Amino acid sequence: MHNRFLTKCTKEKRQKKENVDRISNLSDPILAHILSYLTTKDAVQTSLLAKRYRNLWAEVPVINLDFDDFLSPGEEVQEKFVKFANGVFKHREPLTLESFNLVWNDEDSDPTPVTAWLDTVAKLKPKFLSTDISNYNYKIEVPDSVFTSESLQELVLELTFEIVIPRTVKLPSLRRLTLKNVYIEDEILEKLLSGSPAIEEMVLHNCVWNSGCIFSGTLKNLVLNGCCDETTLFLDVLICVPSLEFLEVYSLWSMGKLKFKDMKSLVGAQIHLKELSDEEPLFLTGLTNVKSLELVLSVSALMAMKNLLQRKTTKFPTFGNLRSLKIRGWSVTHDFNLVACFLLHAPNLKKLTLLHNEELESSEENIEISLQLGYSLNIVEIIYEKDDMSASNLVKSVKTHFKIIREDNIISSD
């Protein structure tokens, strides 16, 4: 009887604990922080939950607006979206803003109200501002107030039109800049870099760009992905950034001359190229300080490099600091000379990773350099597809032509 009574009391206590509304016991700042992970539309809708939530959304330090959240059949989406956004700016508390994120990807609507929204946001001292507008029928102006924000630490502009050159750029706190699908004038990029004394990272993604020149004394990380010239698609790129530590270059189009100058701080680089200039394909000269290098060349780029290496006048640079080298799309037939040149001119290389491309192999191997290369190597890693029929021959060829500290450190994996 006594045990039943204790069991009943225990169940009642457990039920009382389960019925406790722990969320309601949280403070308003914590609840506002939780709401910041929602879209602003969803955060506003929480005002229907209880009286306490009626105005809580207005204290959220984040605004996330997405045009697609307002898509519904039979309604004027643009009018509904603009009305909602205007209401958010009108009724939210006059507090500083941590983050603003806007996505408006609709060709049939007019995004010109965005200019006024961005001007309002800039005055709320945000740390993060991101605008993604995909519309080829309209152009909006990014207000000067965005480019003179003293609080902004990260700026993301994804626009399908040219940015109007601001009169002044003064972004003392900006550390990261991302431009996507933007028409870049030489003057605006120069202004953005010179007006951002603390900038450390820049990403240019699918931008139309005429000069291809980057000069900076503070950048540490740089990513160029798919940028091209508007008329010829051949973009000559010159990067002169003494402070740069990590570099990524991805060429989706044909690329002209690729030059690196004064890159004394560079530690790591990833270079993915579809084409190389016939005039000067040996772009590696400016990367000699790297400790880690990943190289991906298309078939045509590989052939251009191979032809260059066969010239007696070609001087392959010395990579005295290189410790790790990865070559993707590699084949014994086409790329052995390139690998051999690295092994001859990278005396401190410890790890070599080769990602094999079976499609490039010919029926007969044509290896023109047959030396015991790679005395400093600790590990050679060969990565290939599971159904790669030439994998065993590939490993055999590596053992024949490469000399490493221990043969069992030749690793092959699919």
From TrEMBL:
Annotated ranges, domain F-box: 20-70
CDD domains per the UniProt record, alphabetical: F-box_AtFBL13-like (cd22160)
Family annotation (Gene3D superfamilies): Ribonuclease Inhibitor
Pfam families reported for this sequence: F-box, LRR_At5g56370
InterPro entries: F-box-like_dom_sf, F-box_AtFBL13-like, F-box_dom, F-box_SCFL_complex_component, LRR_dom_sf, LRR_FXL15/At3g58940/PEG3-like
Protein name from the UniProt record: F-box domain-containing protein
